[in-house]
Write a structure and sequence with these properties.
alpha+beta
Length: 173
């Protein structure tokens, strides 16, 4: 999907989401850099970013062809039609403009087109803002708690969103 965004400087930017389908080693640094600008703790090493680019699915959010956001998704082994949203990051300076919402909508549409029927992700149990966004804005439902997921006293809430289901089908939780 493509749209325009007016910047604070009066410039209009062409915004689009690009799904990376072929491994490009040049993107490793971009994924790692945007991740480091977003999270207090590093998500990717160059090695894990390369693996994600090669074997997962990476989506880029572009402003005039410059990457301003990344989203990494893998497929669940237990549920082959379920995608696991591993990470989403937006560069500082581009946040607070609704780009993350539109970016995720584009990602979910691409996943559905590729045959995915649901998406799962986890959020820190104390992150009420993040939980609210996923539940209220995107329709995710809580399906469990992952105790001590990233260390002692660091519980994660497991959320799932059904992308598509056939008539009469119940997607198991």
């Amino acid at each position: 999907m493509e749209y325009s965004l007016s910047g604070q400087d009066g410039q209009t930017y062409r915004i689009r989401t690009l799904e990376i389908r072929e491994h490009d080693p040049e993107l490793i640094k971009t994924v790692v850099d945007i991740d480091l600008m977003t999270w207090s703790e590093q998500t990717f090493s160059r090695y894990t970013a390369a693996l994600m680019l090669r074997h997962g699915r990476t989506f880029l959010l572009l402003a005039d062809e410059v990457p301003i956001g990344t989203c990494q998704v893998i497929r669940s082994w237990d549920r082959p039609t379920e995608a696991v949203l591993f990470s989403i990051s937006i560069r500082p300076g581009w946040r607070g403009r609704g780009l993350g919402t539109r970016f995720l909508q584009d990602v979910f549409e691409a996943l559905e087109r590729s045959g995915m029927r649901s998406v799962v992700l986890s959020v820190d149990v104390t992150n009420e803002h993040g939980l609210g966004i996923y539940e209220k804005r995107f329709g995710f439902t809580r399906v469990g708690v992952l105790p001590n997921e990233y260390g002692k006293k660091t519980d994660e809430v497991l959320l799932r969103k059904v992308l598509t289901q056939t008539l009469g089908e119940v997607v198991p939780l």
